[in-house]
Amino acid sequence: MTVQTWLRRARRGLLATGTTAVLTVALLAGTEATSQAASQAPCDLYASGGTPCVAAHSTTRALYGAYSGALYQVRRTSDSATKDIGLLSAGGYADAAAQDAFCAGTTCVITVIYDQSGRGNKLTQAPAGGAAPGPDNLAPATAAPITVAGHRAYGVYVAAGTGYRNNNTNGIATGDQPEGMYAVLDGTHFGGGCCFDYGNAETNNLDTGNGHMEAIYFGDSTIWGSGTGKGPWVMADLENGLFSGPNAGYNANDPSVSHRFLTAIVKGAPNLWAIKAANAQSGGLSTYYSGARPNVSGYNPMHKEGAIILGIGGDNSKSSSGTFYEGVMTSGYPADATENAVQSNITAANYQAPAVTSSALTPGARVSLKATTPCCDSHYLRHQTDGTVAIAPITSTSSSGDKKDATWIVRSGLANGACLSFESAAAPGQYLRHAEFQLHTAAPNATTLFNQDATFCLQAGHSGQGYSFQSVNFPNRFLRHYAYTGYLAGDGVGGNTWDSDALWSDDTSWLPAQPWS
User: Fold this and answer.
1) What is the Cα–Cα distance from 459 to 168, expressed in whole angstroms?
2) Rounded to whole angstroms, how far apart are CA atoms 158 and 310?
3) Rounded to whole angstroms, how far apart are CA atoms 335 and 155?
4) Which of 60, 231, 377, 432 can bridge 153 by disulfide, Cβ–Cβ 3.0-4.6 Å?
5) How far apart are CA 44 and CA 342, in angstroms?
6) Helix or strand or coil: residue 501?
7) Can you tell me the distance from the alpha carbon of 93 to that of 142, in angstroms, rounded to the nearest whole number?
């Protein structure tokens, strides 16, 4: 497709926006057009703009107003049975209750993310690649609970080692053909490895050279490029480089983002590409870069191959993490007006983090925290006399001292009253905190750093059991036991042995139990 062709499509996108405005006026007037306007979803908007979706993936909602098929498939551990998870109604939201019923009493993983475009571009377990063996891990089905339009749903929680792919696609851009893509992500779940991507990649799972990819990247890697602050940033993975701007390196116009729900956009055409992002809950898109391709051999023209990846790099690099809720890829370079309309649709979907509460974890309560990993499900988080924190088996025959060491007093979060802090019952006045990512107990010293180190926000358990505790100052790290010692750990990212992705979901999930003391 020539530049003139996609410019004509851009103009049609502006006209489509005008059509949407007319429908909005009709809505106010109460005319028959009301249902048409109300039923539009992202892929309807892209089609109106002349850049139709050629892949549409979501575990939370329909991306076409008339879509009535399955969103994704889960497989349960107990008997390896699978089930397609569909919608509450055509054009609506995920039937999370069907998943909950199917997975009750066991755990499930997400095996397939279906393509709503009708082109069959579904995502399944990624195979081995040039950078890492495979097949990759599959995402736990309950690790990313949210609500959308008030309905319970689940995202795709990608820990390091997890990945999805389709190398045999239909309609995805190749060569220098224009395309667009967006993804709604968790802006607080990220890593510094390579590469949490969604988009266009090689069809052979290998690094085949500059310009053979065009994908959204989200994370805080600084190996190739970066933006302002400490990250994370939305960048473009164009192969052999994460680009925040016109060339590899620093782009002062690409800011660190921290939205709980993030809209990320990358689009490309002959010698033209752009990065955009926004809060997926409110407001409009910001453009971080729009201009010429990198001035390096291989990127102009591009050599895109047309595979689709999620959670990994083109050569199956899988050392990063993130959470995906929905995303699409288009044929053609979408107009700004079309993308603005899509962002409005996303914010109207009302993505929200679920209110996770526990009667056992209210300020003033005493609680014991039980590990859920099969190896250690009789172990509890405990204070030790040297001030370190570990897990150890506690039973009714344990000494009174051991029972007291495994008991905590729940307090309002020292750094955030909506979160929690834990005071040791065995050492009153000392709080659970992390220092150098290891857990300790220590007395508060009235500093902001201590208060943050001792504050943890409650989330649903990553394994589907109990609760996980997110660090307030390192939001991509959680309370974990590893080799029987307590740590603050990332899910395969962070570079420490205790950040291993093996058993991470289990090791970071805790059951509140009756206090031993």
Assistant:
1) 37
2) 9
3) 28
4) 60
5) 9
6) coil
7) 16
Q: What is the token pair recorded at 167?
A: 């190398």
Structure tokens at 479: 């309370």
Q: Which tens digits make up the pLDDT trace of 319-351?
A: 999 999 999 999 999 999 999 999 999 999 999
What span, in angstroms and rounded, lies between the C-alpha atoms of 79 and 81?
5
Structure tokens given for 28: 């106010």
Rounded CA-CA distance 316/314 in Å is 5
Q: What is the helix (H) or strand (E) element at residue 21, kind and residue range? A: helix 3-29
Quick one: pLDDT at residue 356?
83
Joined tokens for residue 55: 């892949």
Phi, psi of 506 (to 5 degrees): -70, -45
Whether 31 has a pLDDT exceeding 60, the answer reads no
Q: Do the bridges between strand 431-435 and strand 438-442 make them parallel or antiparallel, or are there none, so unpaired?
A: antiparallel
Residues 236, 183, 123, 178, CA torsion sign: negative
DSSP single-letter state for residue 497: G
List Cα–Cα distances, 257 to 188, 242, 438, 459, in angstroms.
9, 16, 27, 21
Mean pLDDT computed over 399-423: 96
Residues 6+ away with beta carbon under 8 Å from 228: 252, 254, 255, 256
Give the Å distances, CA to CA, from 33 to 22, 314, 349: 9, 44, 20
Of residues 179, 254, 305, 315, which has the active-site annotation?
315
Res 253: pLDDT? 97
Q: How far apart are CA 445 and CA 141, in angstroms?
A: 41
Within 8 A by CB and 6+ apart from 347, the residues are 279, 280, 281, 282, 283
- Cα angle at 332 between 328 and 336, to 5 degrees? 80
Q: Please pick, among 44, 186, 214, 239, the residue that the annotation labels catalytic.
A: 239
- The pLDDT of 194-212, averaged and rounded, is 98
Spatial separation of the C-alpha atoms in residues 429 and 383, rounded to whole Å: 13
Sequence-distant (≥ 6) Cβ neighbours of residue 277 within 8 angstroms: 234, 257, 262, 263, 264, 265, 285, 286, 288
* Residue carrying structure tokens 């023209």: 301
Extract the tokens encoding 347.
């914010």
* Average pLDDT for the chain: 91
Whether 305 is catalytic = no
Catalytic site residue 239? yes
Structure letter (DSSP) for residue 376: G
Are 180 and 329 spatial neighbours (Cβ–Cβ below 8 Å)?
yes
* Closest alpha carbon to 310 in 460, 450, 126, 437: 126
Q: Return the ∠ at Cα 233 (arms to 306 and 420), rounded to 5°.
A: 120
Q: Is the peptide bond before 135 cis (omega within 30 degrees of 0)?
A: yes
Give the pLDDT confidence of 374-392 residue by residue, as tens digits: 999 999 999 999 999 999 9
Residue range 99-111: mean pLDDT, rounded: 94
Residue type for 436, please? E
Instruction: Write out the DSSP string of 76-101.
Output: ETTT--EEEE-BSSTTSBB-HHHHHH
Q: What three-state secondary structure class fits 233? A: strand
